[in-house]
Write a structure and sequence with these properties.
three-stranded antiparallel β-sheet; eight-stranded mixed β-sheet; BirA Bifunctional Protein, domain 2; alpha+beta; elongated; Helix Hairpins; 445 residues
């Protein structure tokens, strides 16, 4: 969430940032005008409220003076005035809550402001290459996609998964199931033992407030799975309901919310968390995309990275986090490239995002396997997550970062396609052999 004071002082900068995010000029200006008007209404009302509160306090003192001086008529007049003020204040305080809710609702719809060095563009075609690692080898004509390899091995079953759960689910068996588990364990071990992240086991269901804190609600409710409670109603104003529970779309949600409504000591920062968890997404906007195989699933495993930093350290932490995610692919000896996302392709809560794209020879293309974002204080304002400044006197909003370290299912796809052999077997990368019980190759049995 953006700071209304900053918006009030920088309305043109906000309009320009929204245009960079592919809003039309008219839409951007209308939103800025709406926010400024809502803030002016709220501040004007608060001014009247404060005036009447001050008058109530003064009149209450005057009543005492009048009683002591024996002027009962004046005292009764003042009591009547105080009674009228109390009635006004009851309605005015309800109006204050209504004005606060309207302003907060309008602010909640705003995306984050892109960092100054983010390339301006409309979509993924305008993303900018940061660097490439590894060479993409010549693609022999026998190369297959992961689902062809997995089905031929008899260890990847989409038909039975569809009987159980519908489309976009997979059943893995045998050595492929073990390989997926090995990938997750390898990533966790790397991030905890070498990169300094603390492993966390997180709840897989969270409340509205947690989803709001990281920006999934209210804007992206259709992308989520509601596990318990009353669904939100499209077109009606959104209000948090503490009885609702949502399946997490990523462990970013519970990990980042570990600091919600808290004040962290400066010396404890940065906090670095990692978790291996199932993730659940409806993929509402992906109809017709990646319908074959495991690339786009309703349920998948991912190793998440989350950092909580002070305001001075978040940019450097973003580079560090991205390098931690890249190291996974380097250890697996998979070719990849890292892209800087343009303003039109960047997520709602991000100031800047790097996408790491792994080479998939079966598709003859690079595909995203990790997305690392710095959010500034955007999520912290929604969570009311703060830290003591270095002087220990004031409180500042933390900066938050999140990234995939990496998507386990997509790493499985990348290993299968890059390590496939002409006979249909799949070699095990050196980094994973300790996790595979000495197995060096997956083949039909």
């Amino acid at each position: 969430m953006l700071d209304i004071k900053w918006i009030r002082d920088n309305p043109t900068a906000l309009a320009e940032a929204l245009v960079k995010r592919q809003w039309s000029s008219n839409e951007a200006q209308a939103k800025v005008d709406e926010l400024v008007a809502l803030d002016e209404d709220r501040r004007a009302h608060l001014g009247k409220l404060q005036e009447r509160q001050e008058r109530r306090n003064a009149a209450s003192k005057e009543i005492g003076n009048a009683m002591r001086s024996g002027d009962s008529a004046l005292a009764e007049t003042l009591k009547a005035e105080v009674g009228e003020i109390k009635s006004f204040l009851q309605g005015a305080e309800a109006m204050e809550r209504e004005l606060d809710a309207k302003l907060e609702g309008a602010l909640a719809e705003l995306p984050n402001i892109p960092a100054a060095d983010v390339p301006v563009g409309a979509d993924e075609k305008d993303n900018v290459l940061k660097h490439k690692v590894g060479k993409t080898p010549e693609r022999p004509n026998w190369v297959k996609e992961h689902y062809e390899i997995g089905e031929a091995l008899g260890q990847m079953d989409f038909e039975r998964a569809a009987k159980l759960s519908g489309s976009r689910f997979t059943v893995l068996k045998g050595q492929l199931a073990r390989l997926e588990r090995a990938l997750g364990q390898f990533m966790l071990d790397l991030h905890t033992t070498e990169h300094g992240y603390e492993e966390v086991q997180v709840p897989l269901m969270v409340r509205d407030e947690a989803m709001f804190g990281t920006g999934q609600l209210p804007k992206f409710a259709e992308d989520l799975y509601l596990a318990a409670g009353t669904p939100t109603v499209a077109g009606e104003p959104w209000e948090p309901d503490s009885d609702r529970r949502w399946l997490i779309p990523t462990a970013e949600v519970p990990l980042t919310n570990l600091v919600r409504e808290e004040i962290t000591a400066h010396e404890k920062l940065p906090l670095r968390f990692t978790a291996l968890s199932p993730c659940f997404r409806s993929e509402a906007g992906s109809a017709g995309r990646d319908t074959r195989g495991m690339l786009r699933q309703h349920q998948f495993y991912k190793v998440e990275l989350v950092s909580i930093t002070d305001q001075e350290s978040s940019i450097a932490e973003h580079e560090r986090m991205t390098e931690c995610a890249e190291e996974v692919l380097k250890r697996l000896e998979l070719p990849f490239r890292t892209m800087t996302l343009c303003t039109g392709d960047m997520g709602f809560g991000a100031q800047k995002t790097y996408d790491i794209e792994v080479w998939l020879p079966g598709q003859n293309a690079y595909r995203e396997i990790s997305s690392c974002s710095v959010c500034g204080d955007f999520q912290a304002r929604r969570m009311n997550a703060r830290y003591k400044d270095k002087s220990g006197k004031g409180n500042l909003f933390v900066h938050t970062l999140n990234g995939s370290g990496t998507a386990v299912g997509r790493a499985l796809i990348a290993v299968m396609e890059n390590y496939q052999q002409e006979d249909g077997s799949v070699m095990i990368p050196e980094a994973l052999k300790p996790y595979m019980g000495g197995l060096t190759k997956i083949e039909v049995r």
